[in-house]
TrEMBL record:
InterPro entries: Glyco_trans_28_C (IPR007235). This is Glycosyltransferase. It comes from the Bacteria. Residues 166-290 form the Glycosyl transferase family 28 C-terminal domain.
Amino acid sequence: MTTLFLSSTGGHLHELDELAARLPPGRRLWVTHENAQSTSLLAGRDVEYLPYVRPRSPADVARCLPVARRLLRTHDLTAAVSTGSSIALGFLPYLAAHGVACHYVESAARTVGPSLTGAVLARCPRIRLWTQYAHLADSRWQHAGSVFDAYVPAAVPARDGHRIRVVVTVGTAHPFRRLVEHLVPLLAPGGPLERATGRPVEVTWQTGSTPVDDLPITANPLLPAADLDTALARADIVVAHAGAGSALAAFAAGRAPVLVDRRARFGEAPDDHQSQLAPELARRGLALARSVEEVQVADLLWARARGALRARECFPRLEPR
């Protein structure tokens, strides 16, 4: 009896890992894309790596079907759990039609309604649908908590040390050049943050697909999950795009980040769902929500004094009603 855990990388994989850690143990098979995050996060686990399934690509979704058929034939699959995105469309409808208990957990980033993937799967029979927000529960979507429910805000004392350590992570799927350009002068040697704290500023930049070769920074396109976790644990300040995975990583490291939302009109995301998530986490006291042009030194100092604590576990109970 094997449970299949499948998702794309980035925030979807981070959320799925959080959920999987809170579910009963058993034989597990992971299906995702291969990159520095996934190979680090899933090291030592049974993993099937797929070519990247592009968002809104029917051809890529169709290419998942032979893999789903093979895994069903070669593994005793009894359940499948996915947090999206398009990769879920390539597996869940087929597996559900062949008797596998399938569960789709909509991303915690979707605070006002389902994603396109969720809307499509809602039309498929025999797939259990879970929302992470009580106000979105209805006859089709069930609610049993959110990955964010495990965290509460906390004040943290300023750390002693010669430097102010900052982590900036802007996600991997789409460029977020506007945020990087805005932060470079704020965090530069002799810049506003250094003057405000009286300490030199050391920055770890995770820039994903953002082109930064012409900027005066040392960039890491994608850090292994373990390296990013280490950098976050050492950080005094975290600034991130308003993605669920980046927020969860900051919370797990005990930091309350400044979250900056991507905007579709700048080609930074397919829609403006990050403009929904950042205010939700700010409402919980776990983050500061800002647009790119709003980020200033006062916000960085706010993040330096704020943290997050893991208070309790809350997760969807993936079982019949």
